[in-house]
Structure prediction request, 237 residues.
Amino acid sequence: MPASLPIVFIPGASSDESAWDEQRDYFSRRTQVVVAGLTAFDDIGKMADHVLKIAPPEFMLCGTSMGGYVALDVLKKAGGRVKKAVFCNTSARADTPERRRQRQIEVAQGEAAYIKARQDDSHYRAFLSESSSRDKALIARLRDISLRVGYGCFSRHQAACAGRAEFLQFLPLIGIPVLVVGGAEDALMPPALQEEMHGLIRGSRLAILPGSGHITQMETPGAMTEELEKFLFAEGA
Prediction:
């Protein structure tokens, strides 16, 4: 795999391109890096179409959480353009009816409730690892992102996640090298979901990162970047 092959990163829900800053800064020293901005979209399929529009003709793909759903749809639509794929803190399952209702309730609470919740550190501790939940700088950074993208983005992304398709039957059809990454302390997308994906994608690799919750690329950026480098650029990977 040529080291010059570009990488396309896809952020998660209620987030923006800055969620991949550490990895963008690191890998841009050796190849072209594109980070998709998806704050304006409310549909996974439309997000995937946007990624394909801004991506180079051939590329390596890495999506986290909601970005993993988008990455799966990108592969399904134009798998020939993607040479390697990384799925982080995500699942190939569709939302359950209960989860859809929960999303609707959260959106219905409105913008004031959205802002108030994100001013409280406990909001972030619900999906961070134990050690990350004590990281004031990380929580401040996550708060800045949440308030910057705003309630409108939150509402759109909740709709996108609630309406996503199931990809379990698609996983065995993936014929490119795949790395599946999870956080050992991810309460939103537990490692069992990444293990399920790994088991259904032939020849895939699995990395569960200790000390990380749902935001692996920000909680344990060094470990995440190391796993990405080994997979994306190592000889024979």
Remarks:
- The two ends are 8 Å apart (CA to CA).
- The domain at 1-237 is CATH 3.40.50.1820 (Rossmann fold).
- The chain has ten helices and six strands.
- The mean pLDDT is 97.
